[in-house]
Amino acid sequence: MKKPHPDYDPAKSHHTPQGYRNNYPHGRPGGADFLRWQRERLLAPAVAHEVARIPVVAPDLAFLAQNRHELSATWIGHATVLLQVAGLNILTDPVFSARTSPVQFAGPKRMVPLPARLDELPPIDLVLISHNHYDHLDRGTVQALLKQRGGPPQFHVPLGMERWMAGQGIGNVQRYDWWQSRTVNAADGGIAIHYVPAQHWCKRQLLGGEHPSLWGGFVIEHGERKLWFAGDTGYSRDFLDIGARFGGFDFSMIPIGAYEPRWFMRNQHVNPDEAVQIHLDVKSKRSMGIHWGTFVLTDEPLHQPMDDLAAARHKHGVAEADFVYFAIGETRVIS
Questions:
Q1: Which of 52, 91, 125, 271 reaches 20 to 30 Å from 300, CA-CA?
Q2: How far apart are CA 73 and CA 333, in angstroms?
Q3: 136 class by beta-carbon count within 10 Å (0-12 exposed, 13-18 middle, 19+ buried)
Q4: Beta carbons of 270 and 306 less than 8 angstroms apart
Q5: Sign, CA torsion 311/58/128/226
Q6: Residue 87: inside a domain
Q7: Among 58-72, 95-109, 236-250, 263-277, where is mean pLDDT lowest?
Q8: What string of DSSP letters covers 101-169?
């Protein structure tokens, strides 16, 4: 008999002997669906990616280097955000490589240049990794963080990923199941980090278990301020649960890209319309769109999320200032 997953807890409904499952499972495409999608892509007209429309600004590196008191967010691209909270520098899903792939000679390439190299940013204190897909967990970037000046950061990861981290020589790891929390000391008091559910899946290699590690998002609390990084997700009732538990957020980072074709992507990636609904579900005061404008992963044009987000705000009656997209490299103080 095959041994159960080493973290298997039969008392938890999202655990299985083989790994993990969603709280509100509604399936995902299989191998035959993937082949159908790839066949359709080959036969479809070429997609026009208007890369010049993706907003880009030079980052304010001087501000980032000296900032110890302002709560700020800087979009590096895709799902990588530099958060400055309570004097700590926190990176979400750091990917600084040229491609999101097991190798750097093939796979989806970065369409917009990095706004800054990793070594130009202030030393990173904490790294939050939502799940193990290549556009969220990049081995080259993890290895570079290990060698950063001042020493390696602390990594916060979902259950199962600590074994991958150990294989990279990383020991300073905090691991989480859904709804688990940790407290991290900071110069400006402690911050609480919570790991929360998402509607997704997890696999990094062709062979092996379907869901060897968990997937989700992170909530950061400092005093009365609450931030939420959604990671990568399809739409589900999880967001009503998150909104009810935390009572709303001052600032949220919600994916708005990689959503076409809907028949293939809907159970794993939200589109801008669903992202705005999530903004409402979690009771977010302000949100930014992530997971777009950097790598071509799916069939919509790279710039399309900007237009679809505007339409989604209008449909749901959400003010333009309440759900925005940043320029790559842009920093905003969260007031």
A1: 91
A2: 7
A3: buried
A4: no
A5: negative
A6: yes
A7: 95-109
A8: SSSSSSSPBBSS--SS-GGGSPPP-EEE----STTT--HHHHHHHHTSTT---EEEEETTHHHHHHHTT
The first and second tokens of residue 248, run together, are: 């709303």
Q: Please report where in the chains the tokens 């294989």 appear, as a residue.
A: 167
Q: Which residues contact 240 (CB under 8 A, 6 or more apart)?
A: 281
Question: Does some domain include residue 100?
Answer: yes
Average pLDDT over residues 182-200: 90
Q: 24 lies in a domain?
A: no
**Residue 201 domain flag:** yes
**Which region holds residue 317: left if phi is over 0, alpha if psi is between -120 and 50, else beta?**
left
Cβ neighbours of residue 28 closer than 8 Å, sequence gap 6 or more: 201, 267, 268
Single pTM value for the model: 0.96
Q: How would residue 193 be classed by pLDDT, with cut points 50, 70 and 90?
A: very high
Q: What CATH number does residue 279 fall under?
A: 3.60.15.10
Contact 270, 310 (CB under 8 A): no
Which pLDDT score is estimated for 207? 43
Count of the separate structural domains present in the chain? 1
Name the helix (H) or strand (E) containing 216: none
Range of the domain at 95: 56-333
